[in-house]
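Morning run. Coffee first, then this:
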Amino acid sequence: MILRLFCFSLMVSALLISTGQAAGIACFNAEEGKIAQFRILQQELNVAALNCQTNDPSAPGFREGYNAFIARFSGLLQDTAQPLKNHFSRVHGSLDVWTTKVANDASVRVFTDHDFCQKAWVNLGHALTLSPTEVQSFAQGAIGVRAYLPICAEKKKKGRL
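And here it is:
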């Protein structure tokens, strides 16, 4: 219990330190945002695989489900890596730092959101029934709003009178 509290306080500290930097994250365009949302879902499932357990020891565990997710969407994970790298290169940011923020946020929510594991289990089960195209659309609704995922406002085209 003390170890969990210590880990929790370290994660909260890291999140608080990084939150001040969140405002400086350059926005994602619509396509980058879709990719980033999928990557956030993947990170949240990763954290759940490391922290969430079923009550039935004979039931398939979250790790097995997460491994199935990675196997099913390995092509999509590879295909989406370069566009994210391009985004962070263009905005002079760091994909590694952003990914760490995403994972830290999920790690904190394991302890602060009592439904985190249940939501992750439901999201994992649903994601495994989807195609790569469908899972990206699903991720948009599954993850909700995150401070480290600002989406750029669409620029309105000026019309002629």
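The helical segments are 2-22, 30-51, 62-72, 74-90, 95-112, 116-127, 132-143. Good start to the day.
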